[in-house]
Specification:
Chain lengths: 107, 119
């Protein structure tokens, strides 16, 4: 099983600032890495897949990068609606696995 | 518009069974990979099962042999039959739809149905 580790667990950021979230896998993912956003009481939303492709309707301030086992989600300028929990997910192999999440909170 | 509406959750005793349903609209469940993802209270996301359009199925080790994913094309509905339930199966269960290109992703989500396993 591919284990996904996200860091930090909590990220305190001021509105308008840049946020950088990390996700590490225990083996190479061949770029098959996705990011989801989840707000309280809501279902998750797909943001990014194939490491850097934004899903339909996702703003350009969200970007993904990385390769191999190290990946990053960057939110260039945090808006109020971006404060949420973010999960990475690998789909390079079975079972599909998620990271434990990073909570982005208001500083 | 794509919509997914889950139902069937509830309180069940350990060892019991439950069948979850996910009614889909705006697309045909038989044509796109469908899945179940769960989230224990206050915890992260855990993939449970996937059903491909060619009827191949995939399961997390934690539910293999106990859960069965299926669909009814005439009702455009996805199911999850859960047997021999354990306390650790307590979670909000979401059904999710993949991208149309079939990538093993979770593009559209339902709001979930809560399953509580307790005596």
């Amino acid at each position: 099983e591919i284990v996904m580790t996200q860091s930090p667990a909590t990220l305190s950021v001021s509105p308008g600032e840049r946020a950088t979230l990390s996700c590490r896998a225990t083996q190479s993912l061949n770029s098959y890495l996705a990011w989801y956003q989840q707000k309280p009481g809501q279902a998750p939303r797909l943001l990014i897949y194939d490491t850097s492709t934004r899903a339909t309707g996702i703003p350009a301030r969200f970007s993904g990068s990385g390769s191999g086992t190290e990946f990053t989600l960057t939110i260039s300028s945090l808006q109020s609606e971006d404060f949420a929990v973010y999960y990475c997910q690998q789909y390079n192999g079975w079972p599909l696995t998620f990271g434990g999440g990073t909570k982005v909170e208001v500083k | 518009e794509v919509q997914l509406v889950e139902s069937g959750g509830g309180l069940v005793q350990p060892g019991g069974s439950l069948r979850l349903s996910c009614a889909a609209s705006g697309f045909t469940v038989s044509s796109i990979r469908m899945s179940w993802v769960r989230q224990a209270p206050g915890k992260g996301l855990e993939w449970v099962s996937f059903l491909y359009s060619d009827d191949r199925t995939f399961y997390a080790d934690s539910v293999k042999g106990r859960f069965i994913i299926s669909r009814d094309d005439s009702k455009n509905t996805l199911y999850l039959q859960m047997n021999t339930l354990r306390a650790e199966d307590t979670a909000l269960y979401h059904c999710a739809r993949d991208l149309t290109t079939g990538r093993n992703l979770f593009h559209y989500w339902g709001q979930g149905t809560l399953v509580t396993v307790s005596s």
